[in-house]
Design goal:
The protein is of the alpha+beta class. It has a single domain, classed as tRNA(His) guanylyltransferase (Thg1) (Alpha-Beta Plaits, 2-Layer Sandwich), CATH 3.30.70. The protein is built from nine helices and six strands, in the order H-E-H-H-E-E-H-E-H-H-H-H-E-E-H. A six-stranded antiparallel sheet has the order 4-1-3-2-5-6, sandwiched between helices. Helix 5 (about 135-160) packs parallel to helix 7. The longest helix has 27 residues, at about 135-160. Bound molecules: guanosine-5'-diphosphate and magnesium ion. Magnesium ion binds near residues 32, 33, 36 and 77.
């Protein structure tokens, strides 16, 4: 009776929303801080090193747990990871590609590790979204896009640390740079990881390392190229 009931519940309801990723694709997972505008309100501006360090710590923790994880890229309150399963015919895919499992477990593992590392007044929460990207070139473009967002975010953060919100509305990127120059502040001279983001990647001898000195991806395409496996 109980077994029949379980089978029926699974078949009629649980399996109805079981979404499975296609095999031999590039899986990208992005974790993003929930309501971090508020969570970070009392943190150091424009750049909080302790926040970035805790995000990196959580990223390494999660990267180690995810089967097939190749690297992670982080900036602001987010981290994106690349997972692949096409190296061998029998390469495993994390949770057999079960999207609900991948999204919920990645968010909770990252959240737990971040809170343990950061120890803020309030606990933080993160969401996770999962996508499958068939073409390798589009994977490169995905990470390029996140890095462009990093540069834009860091300029906005720097500008808002020196000017009021009303002074900045409607201002272009060039205008924000000029405004900062007029106060003797140069975005280009800010820490590299604040402007470009950070990468967690496997070390040759095992383990994972954080790279705080990454290049601008579209100026040095070899960097992402070396991290992204090739299918046939
Ligand atoms: N003080 C501070 N805030 C940060 C830092 N990095 C990210 N943030 C904040 O995190 C927010 C992240 O943006 P977003 O994910 O779009 O907004 P959310 O929906 O409120 O999480 C930004 O608006 C910043 O306010 C930092 O280094 N210092
Ligand atoms: Mg957020």
């Amino acid at each position: 009776m109980k077994d029949d009931l379980g089978r029926r519940m699974k078949r009629d309801f649980e399996d109805a929303l079981r979404i499975t990723l296609p095999r031999r694709s590039h899986v990208v997972i992005r974790i993003d801080g929930r309501g971090f505008h508020k969570f970070t309100a009392h943190l150091e501006r424009p750049y909080c090193r302790a926040l970035a360090d805790a995000l990196d710590c959580a990223a390494v923790h999660l990267a180690k747990e995810m089967i097939g994880c190749r690297f992670g890229y982080g900036q602001s309150d987010e981290y994106s990871f690349l997972l692949t399963d096409f190296e061998r015919d029998d390469s495993p895919l994390w949770f057999d590609g079960n999207v609900q499992k991948i999204a919920s477990v990645s968010a909770s593992v990252f959240t737990g590790a971040f809170n343990a590392a950061f120890q803020g007044v309030r606990a933080a929460a993160f969401d996770s979204r999962v996508m499958a990207i068939p073409r390798r070139a589009d994977v490169m473009d995905y990470f390029l896009w996140r890095q462009l967002d990093a540069s834009a975010n860091s300029l906005n953060m720097l500008a808002s640390a020196h000017f009021r919100h009303e002074e900045l509305v409607g201002k272009s990127t060039a205008e924000k740079h000029e405004m900062l120059h007029s106060r003797g502040v140069n975005w280009a001279k800010q820490p590299s990881d604040f402007k470009r983001g950070r990468v967690v990647k496997p070390e040759p001898g095992g383990g994972w390392a954080v790279d705080l000195e990454i290049p601008v991806f579209n100026r040095e395409p070899g960097y992402l190229d070396a991290l992204t496996p090739r299918g046939e």
